[in-house]
Recover the amino acids of this structure.
């Protein structure tokens, strides 16, 4: 094994994070990191996906694009 499993795990986590970014049920994401958006959604009782997919410093996929 040459780290393929680890790469696949990171790709899956990033795919899930992008899905979180695109899910408008959790409110807008511009100007917030993924973790900040997750915390806001949780505080509002919106049951966001597991927090492990959002590191503290990751911007949403739209940051810098719009």
């Amino acid at each position: 094994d040459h780290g393929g499993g680890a790469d696949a795990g990171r790709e899956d986590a990033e795919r899930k994070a992008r899905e979180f970014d695109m899910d408008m049920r959790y409110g807008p994401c511009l100007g917030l990191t993924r973790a900040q958006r997750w915390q806001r959604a949780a505080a509002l009782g919106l049951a966001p996906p597991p927090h492990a997919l959002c590191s503290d410093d990751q911007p949403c996929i739209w940051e810098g694009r719009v």
